[in-house]
Amino acid sequence: ADPIRIGSVVSATGPSAFLGDPEAKTLKLYVEELNKKGGLLGRPVELVLYDDGGDANKARTFATRLVEDDKVVAMVGGTSTGATMAMIPVFEEAGIPFVSLAGGIEIIEPVRPFVFKTPHTDKTACQKIFEDMKARGITKIGMISGTDGFGKSMRNQCLKVVGGYNITVLADETYGATDSDMTPQLNKIKNTAGVEAVLNPGFGQGPAIVTRNYAQLGLKLPLYQSHGVASKSFIELAGPAAEGVRLPAPAILVGDKLATEDPQKAVVAGYKASYEKATGQSVSTFGGYGFDGIQLVTQAIDKAKSAEPKKIRDALEATRSYVGVTGVYSFSPTDHLGLGTDSFRMLEIRGGDWTLDAPTR
Amino acid sequence: MSEFLQLVFSGLTVGAIYALIALGFTLIYNASDVINFAQGDFVMIGGMATVFLMSAGLALPVAAFIAVVASVGVGLLLHRFAIEPARGASPVTLIMITIGASIFIKGVAQIVFDKQFHSLPAFSGDTPIPVGGATLLPQSLWVLGTTLGLVVALYLFLEHTLSGKALLATAANRLAARLVGINVTLILAMAFGLSAAIGALAGVVATPITLTRYDIGTLFALKGFAAAMLGGMGNPVGAVVGGLLIGLLETFGAGYVSSTYKDAVAFLMILFVLFFLPRGLFGGRSVERV
Amino acid sequence: MSLLEVRDMGISFGGLKAVDGVSFTVEAGQVFSIIGPNGAGKTTLFNLVTGIYRPSRGKVTLAGADMTGLAPHLLVRRGMARTFQNLQVFFRMTAVENVMVGCHLAERTSFLADLLGLPAVARQNKVTREHALALLGRVGLAHLADASAGALPYGALKRLEIARALAANPKVLLLDEPAAGCNAVETEAIDHLIADIARGGVGVVLIEHDMKLVMKISDRVLVLAQGRPLAEGAPRAVRENPQVIAAYLGDHGAREADRAHG
Amino acid sequence: MLTVEAITSAYGRINVLHEVWLEVKAGEIVALVGSNGAGKTTLLRTLSGVQPARSGRILFKGEAIERLEPHQRVVRGISQSPEGRQVFGPLSVEDNLRLGAYRRQDAGMRGRLDHVFALFPVLAEKRRIAAMSLSGGQQQMLAIGRALMAAPKLLLLDEPSLGLAPLLVDQILAAVRALRAEGITVLLVEQNASAALAIADRGYVLETGRVVMEGSGAALLDDPKVRTAYLGL
Amino acid sequence: MGAKATLARVLRARFTPLIVLAALMVLVPVLAPSSFHLRVAALVWIFALAALGLTILMGYAGQVSLGHAGFVGIGAYAVAIGPARLGLDPLLCLGLGAVLAGAIAYGVGRPILKLKGYYLAIATLGFGVIVALVLHSEAEITGGPDGMAVARLSLFGWRVSGALNWYWVTSGALLIGALLALNIAASPTGRALRALHDSEVAAAGTGIDVGAKKLAAFVVAAVYGAVAGGLLAAMNGLITPEAASFSHSIELVAMVIIGGLGSVFGTVVGAAFLVVLPQMLTALQEYEQAVLGLLIMVFMIFLPQGIVPSIRAYILERLP
Ligand SMILES: Nc1ncnc2c1ncn2[C@@H]1O[C@H](COP(=O)(O)OP(=O)(O)OP(=O)(O)O)[C@@H](O)[C@H]1O
Ligand SMILES: Nc1ncnc2c1ncn2[C@@H]1O[C@H](COP(=O)(O)OP(=O)(O)OP(=O)(O)O)[C@@H](O)[C@H]1O
Ligand SMILES: [Mg+2]
Ligand SMILES: [Mg+2]
Question: Residue of the nearest CA to atom 28 in ligand 1?
Answer without folding.
Answer: C39
